[in-house]
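Re: your question about 3-ketosteroid-9-alpha-monooxygenase, ferredoxin reductase component

S., sorry for the slow reply, the queue was backed up all week. Below is exactly what I fed in.
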Amino acid sequence: MTTVDVPHSSRSVVLTVSGVVEETSDARSLVFDVPADQRSKFDYKPGQFLTLRIPSDQTGSVARCYSLASSPFSDAEPKVTVKRTVDGYGSNWLCDNVKVGDTIEVLPPSGVFTPKSLDHDFLLWGAGSGITPVMSILKSALSEGSGKVVLVYANRDENSVIFRDELRSLAAQYPTRLTVLHWLESLQGLPTPDQFATLAAPFTGFESFMCGPGPFMDTVHKALAEAGVPRNQVHAEVFNSLAGDPFLDVELEEITAEEAADAASVSVTLDGETHEMSWPRKQTLVDIMLAKGLDVPYSCQEGECGSCACTVLEGKVEMGNSEILDPEDIAAGYILGCQARPLTDNLKIEF
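Result:
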């Protein structure tokens, strides 16, 4: 049995695994029992993810992000789905070792791959385990929304289809609202942008959300552009392995009197509330918000997960690692709070 008793940070929580579902030969879902006193901390939006702390003999632990496949509206407990990846330490460890009753240290839900409204019509794209956050959005839209949902789901073959029975059941339950289109590489080969553009053509007014391997996402991006879908209707989820340890509490550098005097001023809107703060030039936006005790969304602090994405409404910042953002995102004013430092004296930022 794998047990963790005490969390390693003030943000993390130790959860008990209440269920293990073998989805396919190389994918399984882990269901978590969230204690009553932690439930508000684990409220989540469709499409968000959890960060799990996985034991390691070599490094003590590794942190890995796994999307929630459950819906906060129709599922009683949060569930993440893990697919083995070749040489992937975290995924193989979770698939080989975790049993019901085990405990795992987890950070609260995070991520911005989530619809602003569930009443849209949705064109959803998933490949392999990329179905996970897409499934959360799909179930939530059907449960709470009023629009149509079209899912394009690509896999190697029929045996690789995660949630096959659940998708069949949902299609039967919502025959006029849900359409599931399977793309099997074993039958159809790898999809081309032209083929996906043909699939997308009747649904150019729908909001598109996609998750899967890089080549698949590139194909979908090209297909949607070819079909004439506006860029602001296209949303992509990208995961990178985390090099640092997000389970350690952040320690802020001390600021000298000179640095404090030279600090910028920033107005930050978070969850509808506006906060006025001093922003020393060498600290990141996430740093100063944490120092003020604000519940800023963040996970990795490396610019790899996108949890802290926000919009600059006024002013300019310099950015560290921002590869997870598309050029279109940056042009629209998106930044990563964990990588941003002020360039101008006055800024206005919205989460």
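The chain has a mean pLDDT of 92. The longest strand covers residues 13-24.

Happy to talk it through on Thursday.
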